[in-house]
Amino acid sequence: xxxxxxxSSRAAATVRHGLVGLEAVAHHVAPPVLRIALALPFLxxxxxxxxxxxxxxxxxxxxxEEEFKLHIFGGEYALPAPEQLALLTAIxxxxxxxxxxxxxxxxxxxxxxLVMTGVIQLVFPDGWANxxxxxxxxxxxxxxxxxxxxxxxxxxxKGVARSGRPGAR
Length: 169
Known about the structure:
Blueprint: H1 3-47, H2 58-67, E1 69-72, E2 75-78, H3 82-102, H4 106-123, H5 128-145, H6 152-163
Antiparallel strand pairs: 1-2
Helix pairs in contact: 1-3, 1-5, 2-3, 3-4, 4-5
C-alpha cells in the first residue's frame, strides 16, 4: 500500500466519522426544529383570533360566518356551525402549536394540525403549493420521527422506563 492510498483511506474514514457525528447532531436538532417550524404559522394565526381572554375577535367571527367557504366538488358551501368552528379553530391554533413547541403529546398535536391543514385546503384550495403541502409534510414528518430527545414526551418516556412499570418502553 502506498502513501497516497493510505492518505485517501484516512481521509475517507475522517469524512465518514464526521458524517456520523453530523447525523447524531441532526438526530437531536431536527425534531424540535420541525416542531417549531410547524407550530409558528398556526400559533401566529391563533394569536390574531382573540380580542382578550376567551373573547373571539369580530374579524374571526365575520370570517367564519361570511367569508370562509368550503370548496368541494366544484361548489362553494358555507361552513357548518361557524361560531363553534371559529371557537374550536381559535383554541386549536393556540393549544396544538404550544404542545408541539414543548413536545407534549407531539404526535397527536401534529395529527391535529395535519387535519386542520386538510380543512384549510378545502377553504383555500389554491394554497397547497405555497403553504399546505409544507405544513402537511412537516406534520407527517413529526408523526413519523416523534418528538425527539428535547421534548417533554421524551422525559416522560424515560421516567416511565426507569420506573419499571408495565407498558414501559
